[in-house]
Amino acid sequence: MIKVTPQARDQVVQMMNNDGVNTKTHFVRVGVKSGGCSGLSYELNFDNNLSDTDKIFEDKDIRIVVDKKSFLYLVGTTLEYSGGLNGKGFVFNNPNANRTCGCGESFAM
Questions:
Q1: Is the Cβ–Cβ distance between 43 and 29 less than 8 Å?
Q2: For the chain, how many helices (H) and strands (E)?
Q3: 42 and 31 Cβ atoms separated by less than 8 Å
Q4: Domains along the chain?
Q5: Buried b / exposed e across 69-90, counting CB within 10 Å, b at 16+?
């Protein structure tokens, strides 16, 4: 399961609205790819195409879709958002990561 904090939910809805993306037909796709200073990095985008092997979650009225491979790295993760002058934007609170980089955009297991 992947959770979303209220702040992340509000930011996702705002970004979807700004981009003209329909929250009823589209979802947030979260994934993991090779790269970044720690070895793996997070991907986050809007999508409306599902695969048979995708895992679908809903939290706080936000649909989140994760491909099967990425799901193994993301189980139990919470998507957070930190705004303001010192904010980092979207942050993944991933209990499976044993090392993260300073920017929080990549991790290792």
A1: yes
A2: 2, 9
A3: yes
A4: 3-98 (2.60.300.12)
A5: ebbebbeebbbbbeeeeeeeeb
Residues in the chain: 109
Q: Positive or negative, the Cα torsion across 93, 91, 58, 98? A: negative
Q: What is the pLDDT of residues 1-18, one digit of tens each?
A: 899 999 999 999 999 999
Query: Quick check: 61 and 8 in contact, CB under 8 A?
Result: no
Whether this prediction's pTM lies above 0.85 is answered by no
Q: What type of residue is 89?
A: G
Q: How many angstroms separate the CA atoms of 80 and 58, rounded?
A: 15
Query: Please, what is the average pLDDT of the chain?
Result: 85
pLDDT under 50: residue ranges of the chain: none
**Cα angle: 50, vertex 52, 57; to 5 degrees:** 60
